[in-house]
Amino acid sequence: ATHWDGPDALLKRIEWAGSVAARAAGREQPLSLGERSLGAALNGRTRTAITRAASAEQAITLLLASPEFQRR
C-alpha cells in the first residue's frame, strides 16, 4: 500500500499517464481507447473529461489517470 498511497505515488502515476499519452496521442482516439479498455466501467465523468480535453494527449492522460483505469 505504501507504494500506491501518498502524493509521491499519485504524482508518479500522473507522470506515467502523461508519458504514455504523449506516445499514443497520434495513434489512438481517446474515447475509443477508453471504451475498448474499460468497457462499461468507463463512467460518465471520465467520458466527459475526455471529450472536453484540449488535446488528444490531454484526453489520454485523463483516461489513464482516471479512478476506473487506476483500479483496473
The gyration radius over C-alpha positions equals 12 Å
How many β strands by DSSP? 0
Q: What structural category characterises the helix and strand content?
A: mainly alpha
Main pleated-sheet profile: none
Mean pLDDT across residues: 89
Unreliable segments of 5+ consecutive residues: none
Order of helices and strands: HHHHH
Determine the fraction of residues in helical runs and give it as a percent range. over 70%
Distance between the termini: 16 Å
Strand content: under 5%
* Total helical elements: 5
Shape: globular
Characteristic terms for this protein:
72 residues, 0% strand, mainly alpha
Overall description:
With 72 residues, the chain is an all-alpha fold. The protein is built from five helices and no strands. The chain has helices at 7-24, 30-38, 44-52, 56-65, 67-71. It is globular, with a radius of gyration of 12 Å. The relative contact order is 0.19.
Concise synopsis of the structure shown:
This protein has helices at residues 7-24, 30-38, 44-52, 56-65, 67-71. It is mostly helical.
Write the layout of secondary structure elements.
Elements: H1 7-24, H2 30-38, H3 44-52, H4 56-65, H5 67-71
Helix pairs in contact: 1-4, 2-4, 3-4
